[in-house]
Amino acid sequence: MSNEQHVREILETQLFSGSMPPEFIDFCLAHGRIRRYAPKEYLYFSDDEGNTVYFLISGRIHLYLMSEFSEKIIRVLSPPTFFPEIVLDEKPYPHAALCMEETKVLALDRKLFMGYIESNPSLLWIFYRELALDLRRSYRQIRNLSLGDARLRLGAKLFALAHVHGLPSEKGVLITLPLSVTELAGMCSLARESVSRILGELKKTKIIEIEKKKITVIDLETLREWIHAREN
To answer: Which of 204, 211, 185 is nearest to 196 (CA)?
Structure first.
């Protein structure tokens, strides 16, 4: 299978649950460029001109909010997905995108993309549904970070990761993203030491298992009950 055929198959069958029409896939392949990035290479930085949209084909990307003295992971992207949705407002990128492993994307000029969408307005509903889902995730993240204690924050993040990036396994649900304690701490706005301690508690109560950077949630319902017990 050629590289273009492989990309086409992914976009047709997996992107947005296979809901994109063939004509849109044809347009993306005709006008887009396949780019490859090495681990720890940035696609773009915060405040760069937002002139490109991307379709993640393979690899893993962290989206960061960055300041002079700190950075925070706001989202982990796994393929296939479209990003950054926010760039459709013609403003600079609001975050940085960092490749965590060898990554392949299909890059498309934003103006060309917007022109096609304007000529095919029925596509807006497909993108709207994805934007609404992302917005709901953002609301949950804000709620957990602003209202919850450390255990609630970390538990909610593990539960979300298991749903979005989980794969059924013999032991439960494997979170397919290899995450370090430092990365989890950044996602939850917690100290690394706090995350290590709470992960130890979850392991001791047999809610999770950890092997290197791979976390398995042994039972999602038990984790849900553990989270709800800390909401009261």
So the answer is: 185
